[in-house]
Amino acid sequence: MARFGGAGKLPLDRFIFVVLLFLINCPNLLADDQIPQAAWHIAIGQPPPNPGGKKPSLPTDIDDGFWQGAPVGGLGAGTFSRSYRGNFERWHVKVGVHKYENVPGNQFAVFVQPEDGTAKAVALSTGKPLNGALSAWDWSYPAGKGEYAALYPKSWFAYDPEVLGIKLTLEQFSPLLPNNYQESSYPVALYNWYAENPSDKKITVSLLFSWTNMVGWFRDQSAGFSTALSNQDKNRYVTEDLNGPTGSAESLRGIIFDRIRTGAVRDEWDGQFAIAVKDGPGFEVSYLTTFYPQLTGDEVWRPFATDGRLPNANPDVASSGEQIAGAIAVRFTLDPHEKKLVPMALSWDLPLIQFGGGRKWVRHYTKFFGAEGTNAWKIAKVALEKDEEWSKAIDEWQKPYIEDESKPLWYRGELFNEMYILADGGTVWAHELDGMGNPKHFSSKDEDSFSYLECFDYPDYGTLDVRFYGSFSLIRFWPELEKQEMREYADTVQESNPQRYLWIWQALHEHKFVTMERKTAGSVPHDLGAPAEDPFVNVNQYNYQDVSNWRDLNSKFVLMIWRDYVYTGSKDLTFLHYAWNGVKAAMEHLRQYDTDGDGLIENGGFPDQTYDDWIATGESAYSGGLYLAALRATTEIALKVGDTNAASEYNSLFRKAQLAYITKLWNGTYFDYDTRSEYRSDIMADQLAGQWYANLTGLGDLVPKRMRLSALKTVYSNNVMLFGNGEIGAANGMGPKGEPLDQNPQVTEVWTGTTFGVASHMLSEGMRDEAFKTAEGVYNVVWRDRGYFFRTPEAYDEDGMYRASMYMRPGAIWSMEYAMELAKQEPSKKK
């Protein structure tokens, strides 16, 4: 067990020498419980100043309230979150399914007894469980005392010393590490406890960690767990000798939460959980493997509250459908002003996932631990061995970003906190099994499939028009996963699916019964499928609009292929060659929408792009600009893969389309929304999305810089500063005189990811002050005022009421980093 020692009775000169030597060799050790300044902070259990909620018109949208905390769990491993009031409440363990319920038996507690003083024990939660569960426990920790902080993937609880009598800080994280394709997938969480004695007397401390046997609880999509409990769940105490880092004998002790079975697991819900801690000199570990958390919990609390010990009992009992939990406690003594570190691990091994279509897949982490579903203890052991290494690696990764004082503090923290969705978004990282239970691979690769949901309200994997904005953190830190997902898309372009579906928008808005083909050849799919069906196999689950005739998807696909090539060093020609046939088919498909022969595609008089309630007719700034950028990208890709004829063809087409775009859409101040709809004169915040990508990927000017600056300044003056007092981001649309619009719900919304994209474009054009003012609006609503932390929504209105929480698109904040790096490389673009 890593720990800090006290001063003891060393002579002063020798003590000073030892301390200096210690600091020289371990410069970061004493600061490990220091919370970075850039982390987001809120008082433990204290509501935000002005809590918001979902729009009243959206009764089915998820709204679990503001008690949210940073998740733990690796990419594709399943995740869960401990709220900042101290309860384990949000569960994304069954792939693609959101569950929200406090599980009282999953808890931390502390025992403190000063020398010659009165003992105190308290559960580290500000809320008491319902229905009398664990009523014997002390649930008196006061809301507002202490601080919760988060800088994903780390988060902290700093408890109030006046309440506990000791300084106690918990650091929690999972090993999400950049360019790491092994440990970033691990199903494990580390809980590092830093306990410090602020007094001049010795204090005895004990830390309790309890957990409920959850094997079987994630077998379905039900909101609660009471209908999904397993028979024959069983907990057992385990101990394993270790060779400590100093040569002293240490052991690993904990509880495995399992079930009675024969052989390896065969079902998605089956597997193990484990909690573990290192035991060594100066520490005493005690345990109770089984208690019933729906009852009073007296058998745990009475001994723990008496002297910080549990009864060391391992009852031979299995469940018959009721909850069973277990607990471990680590007891130690702190000398005056001494600090110690107590690391704990929580692991889970649920290797199989199964979607609604019945196919079974095996999670990526099983490549390193096996797919038997019986390796939770092994995972916990590895975690406790590598805890310090992982923690330091995360700090080193984040340091250059969070210590860059040239950027606002709120921005430095939000950069990392918006990354939570990469793991927490119903994420899949797995390979399919064939009928014989062996790994199966598709033609696109030998790598595991990867994707995460648009959101749980719109549960589509890898939604392409959204990941166009949201995938910037993925390409930056896990580029092989990003390229793998784009290969999945490349495989689908030339496929078709003639199955017909009801066109929902036509039914709701036009009151017509219209059907549409699920996927036409040449169209890039909207999504890779849904967990209720067969994702990666049966694409285009979304049927609100006829996405086979959307105008933005094909262009965005081409632009992301080009972006991913550029952002990985412009060297991976294999990636470009792999995608080239898909790129050509996608661009050829778009040509049918140029009905007047001017080189520029036209929109079809229905919402045929990512703004799927906002009708566009004729040429449009948004879809047309994306098409211009895609023509340029196709030209460059063609040159890279050696297709000079295609390069020449698409370069000529770009010149023709560019002229039409400027001639038909430029109004002298900004680019019109479109040419023929009632929305024609709307000031669209996202009007130059194509130029944004062109700037970030070296495609050059789609329109002259003076036009770009004029359009962006118009957006800033109207969509930002005249909406929500200039404090909530960029409204999607405003009238030509800056008047609010009510033509459709989306025009009056701020889209968080779009706002970051617009801010990124401003940065790339040298409008730094305007960019940060624009992006700060999202921080104000999400992280400062309305309580949307770790559930950043797609959209909110001027009143701050949201739609579609836990959304993919806000990952666009990382595009701002690329834009600032671009500005440094090109001094002429600086303001």
From TrEMBL:
UniProt protein name: Glucosylceramidase
Domain Glycosyl-hydrolase family 116 catalytic region: from-to ranges: 449-816
GO biological process: carbohydrate metabolic process; glucosylceramide catabolic process
InterPro entries per the UniProt record, alphabetical: 6-hairpin_glycosidase_sf (IPR008928), 6hp_glycosidase-like_sf (IPR012341), B_Glucosidase_GBA2-typ (IPR014551), GH116_catalytic (IPR006775), GH116_N (IPR024462), Non-lysos_glucosylceramidase (IPR052566)
Pfam families, per database record: DUF608, Glyco_hydr_116N
Gene Ontology cellular component list: membrane
Listed GO MF terms: beta-glucosidase activity; glucosylceramidase activity
Glycosyl-hydrolase family 116 N-terminal domain: residues covered: 69-390
Species annotation: Alloacidobacterium dinghuense
Classification via PANTHER family: BILE ACID BETA-GLUCOSIDASE-RELATED, NON-LYSOSOMAL GLUCOSYLCERAMIDASE
